[in-house]
């Protein structure tokens, strides 16, 4: 080897960047149509993606936000009818957050047709074996990026100017 880092495939890095940019633009449009900002939408998406109880602290960690900013976000989304906070029955000191059925239905109404269309087009283009490789790539890439994100979060912030 000549000491240079191997490439991840012809054009794969550029293709991934374009994919992420398009996904981000799509999220901005869904957020706009939902009447919220992108962080609000990420919060709603996370709440909708799990059956686990989500505490404000877990939400702050998942969104990469401070507890104070998440508290303000939760206040805003609760006032807007997007989520509800509930006290846990087994520990009344703990609060968990749930999306409202109305907000979930609205988000599904906007996104489900596009997810279904993508699933249909992927099934037409790729074999089940190829889709398994693509899924493995996405899971592996996500795991690598989570590790990189942790490394970035562990670095000190530069002094404010």
Largest sheet, spatial ordering of strands: 1-2
Q: What number of domains?
A: 1
Can you write the helix and strand succession as a string?
A: HHHHEEHH
In CATH terms, the superfamily is Winged helix-like DNA-binding domain superfamily/Winged helix DNA-binding domain
The class by helix and strand makeup works out as mainly alpha
Distance between the termini: 44 Å
Tally of helical segments? 6
Q: Looking at the structure, what is the overall shape?
A: globular
Examine the secondary-structure arrangement and name the CATH architecture: Orthogonal Bundle
Proportion in helices = 55-70%
Strand content: 5-15%
| Uncertain regions spanning at least 5 consecutive residues | none
Task: Give the class-level CATH name.
Answer: Mainly Alpha
Kindly state the number of beta strands: 2
Average pLDDT: 91
Sheet with the most strands, sense and barrel status: 2 strands, antiparallel
Q: Give the radius of gyration.
A: 19 Å
CATH topology: Arc Repressor Mutant, subunit A
């Amino acid at each position: 080897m000549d000491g240079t880092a191997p490439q991840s495939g012809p054009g794969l890095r550029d293709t991934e960047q374009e994919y992420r940019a398009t996904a981000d633009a799509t999220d901005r449009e869904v957020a706009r149509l939902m009447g919220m900002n992108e962080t609000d939408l990420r919060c709603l998406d996370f709440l909708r993606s799990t059956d686990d109880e989500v505490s404000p602290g877990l939400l702050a960690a998942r969104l990469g936000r401070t507890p104070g900013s998440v508290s303000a976000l939760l206040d805003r989304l609760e006032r807007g009818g997007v989520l509800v906070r509930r006290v846990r029955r087994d520990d009344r000191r703990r609060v968990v957050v749930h999306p409202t059925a109305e907000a979930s239905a609205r988000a599904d109404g906007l996104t489900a047709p596009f997810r279904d269309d993508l699933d249909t087009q992927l099934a037409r283009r790729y074999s089940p074996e190829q889709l398994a490789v693509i899924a493995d790539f996405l899971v592996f890439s996500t795991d690598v990026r989570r590790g990189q994100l942790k490394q970035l979060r562990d670095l000190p912030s530069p002094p404010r100017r």
